[in-house]
Amino acid sequence: MSQAKVTRPRHGLRGIRRDRDCRSCKSRGVKCDLNRPRCLPCVQSGLTCGGYPQRVVWATSKTPVTPTILSVKRRPGLAPELSGMERTASPQSLHTGPHGHQSTTKHPQHQFADRLSAWCTELRLSGAVNGDERRHWTRPHYVDALASLNQVLEHANPVAFLGILVLAYFEVLSTSAFGEWQFHLQGARSLLDHHCQSREDIERLGPPIGNLPEMIAYFAWWDVAGVVVRHLGGSRAESHGRLIFLDWHRALIGADFFDTVGCPPEIFQLFVSLAKSASTSHEISEEEALIAEQGRHVLAMQQLLQLGLVADDQGLCRDTWRCAAVIALLTWDSPSQSTDDLTADFREKALTSAVDRICRGISSVPLTSRLYMHMAKPAFLAGINATSLTQCDVIREYWRNLQADGAPRHLGALAQCEERWKNIPRA
């Protein structure tokens, strides 16, 4: 008599797990190898990898948060000098918070520092890939850093200034639209208002986090530059035209800072005056507006008289900023229909001369100069006002040089300039 066959429960995987596959492989029903920034099946098929799903749970959410320990591991077969990203959960590091939330044993600011560091490491390692793949590559770490920043902000921790500075810096350099970097600046201003109402408050708060005045100087600088660039680039929305920071914040920008970016302080004040005029035009009288406009023109004339006085890299960079101020003055408002032909002709000639001067300055400063990257704003204003193919070639080469660097910068600026160049007659 045969013995009855005993059926034992099977263990192991049943079916194929698809929840972590890239979007392209998932839609095609193909097994994904989970490589980042592009998986091998997509590369072999010649398809654009659709990226990987990323779930974000903000610190203010009532659902438990499962933290991750981020590590960078080398994987063979990827782009040179790049690595894949492994994300593994660590249950041992969890404990239940006061409101039933799960959190790591680390203090939020320490966890934030770890995630911010991991993201910066990925930025450095991903310098060899192109812009779209680079964004896919660094996105998970960027989202993790934002989530941790939200936790720090929830406690109004001044350490968040450092995180906002790094994220704002990334926003300034990597935004697809040149000048659209105001969002982290708004967060920085809100956090600053929570802690500081005066310069004395900053000096009191400064020692625990270090270099706070310098951080605020960067915020104020990007704020003014962003308003000017957005206005002249065509974004005339009222919310985009208002300065976020105040005069006493901008007063923290000192001589060393202006030397670093190669911009004369007088030119910065001219840009501040223009930026203020964008949001206060309906709040002041015509006489006050005229006096302010006359002051800007006198300041610009005084700066133009200094063109060419210094021939080193610093002097050339300062000259590009002076010419950028002229372009800003001439193009801030649309030409009036009542303007006579002679005035319009002089205006166009002045614009062309300013663009030519910026192009000569950019071509004369070597790529190895620390000031080269700081000529981006003058290059942008020259680019959107270029009228000849020669000018376009110089500006195009400048943007490509920035993008070819180990840490690509201003990825969307060239596309915005190219859009303006479509109407330039071809020889």
Structural commentary:
With 427 residues, the protein is mostly helical. Among the domains are: 16-53, CD2-Gal4 (Irregular), CATH 4.10.240.10; 302-427. Helices cover 56% and strands 4% of the residues. Strands 1-2 form a two-stranded antiparallel ribbon. The longest helix has 24 residues, at 131-154. The relative contact order is 0.07.
Task: Give unreliable regions as ranges.
Answer: 55-105, 123-131
* Quaternary assembly: single chain
Task: Give a quick account of the main beta sheet: strands, pairing sense, barrel closure.
Answer: 2 strands, antiparallel
Structural class: mainly alpha
Q: How many E-type strands?
A: 4
Helix content: 55-70%
If you compute it from the alpha carbons, what radius of gyration comes out, rounded to the nearest whole angstrom? 26 Å
Order of helices and strands: HHEEEEHHHHHHHHHHHHHHH
User: Span between N and C termini?
Assistant: 98 Å
Q: Give the strand order of the largest sheet, numbering strands 1, 2, ... along the chain.
A: 1-2
Shape: globular
Main location: nucleus
Protein name: Zn(2)-C6 fungal-type domain-containing protein
Organism: Fusarium vanettenii (strain ATCC MYA-4622 / CBS 123669 / FGSC 9596 / NRRL 45880 / 77-13-4)
GO molecular function: DNA-binding transcription factor activity, RNA polymerase II-specific; zinc ion binding
List the helices and strands and how they pair.
Blueprint (H helix, E strand, L loop, with lengths): L22 H6 L11 H6 L22 E6 L10 E6 L4 E3 L5 E3 L3 H18 L5 H24 L5 H15 L7 H14 L3 H11 L2 H22 L13 H4 L4 H7 L3 H16 L5 H19 L8 H19 L9 H24 L11 H8 L5 H15 L9 H9 L6
Antiparallel strand pairs: 1-2, 3-4
